[in-house]
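Hey, can you fold this?
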Amino acid sequence: MRKCLLPLVLLVAGCTQAAPAQSQAAASQPAVHPVSGLPVIPLTVTPIGGRPHVFRVEVASTEAQQARGLMFRTAMGPDEGMIFPYSPPQTVSFWMKNTVIPLDLVFIGPDRRIESIAANAVPYSLTPINSKGPVSAVLELNGGRAARLGLAAGDRVSW
């Protein structure tokens, strides 16, 4: 009976050794948002003289992803958002067509500092919301979130 158990014990030991390698491989995979399917990355805003705040943001990097943005989304967590990177930096214009929730649009300059914030953009509005100059990215957060955290022009953004 001992001979029969030994292969079983070795088999179980071999299986438990493989599991950590699988979880390490899964951990190295980028996170993907369950609704949009976009990659999710950490983004940190460091206010001048304040504590850094970390968000988990979806990355809308293609024209099609940027055109859709957060349209039709009915909810977003308080520390979630979406970033629209631009290379090279450019002057941009956003609207809220088909966007259900109010948003703060945080315009990020080429120096990775907040250029300006358009707070509480009105859902479904077709009124253009423009950057004041060329930006390297726009960060969308829940409406009012930037003010609650004390975010302002000049704060550093890293991702």
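Oh, and this one too while you're at it.
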Amino acid sequence: MPVIRRLLLLAVVLVVCVGCDLSSKRVAAERLSGVEPIDLLAGPVWVRLTYDARGNTGAFLGLGAELPERVRRLLFEVLVAVFLAGLLAYTLAAHALGPLDVLALALVFAGGVGNLIDRLWLGAVRDFVILGVGPVSTGVFNVADVAIVAGGILWLIHAALRPERRAEAPIHEGGEHP
């Protein structure tokens, strides 16, 4: 896939994902702050909207939230920014990437950027959705988290289904492959 097409796909995914993420977080902050959780679906499968104005200062499920602020900033701002820069460089430079690979990496990149913007702007990530099946539920998450997970799953599925690209084995004496 040519670099210009990779860049275009990445830009479109970035604008759409980050736009949806930041817009949904703004709406959640305006409409859910200070109110009881709202159940959108009730029953065996349920969706709850809830908002904590303090935000998530940790990572997935609040991991690392209790770390000292300097350590959290290093881990969740500096190292994440370095990782995202490396992911962007890889996505634009790796010639063997196909459109699905670029889409998967773009989703991870865009989700990471959405959450990084929250961390840099507010010092925490705004989460507001919980999904559940019966008594089992997810942690609280947001649109950026969905993009990251979707990109990771797409990458793994595509990698698992991709036929191996083997170089043709050298022909030995007698004209047969080993």
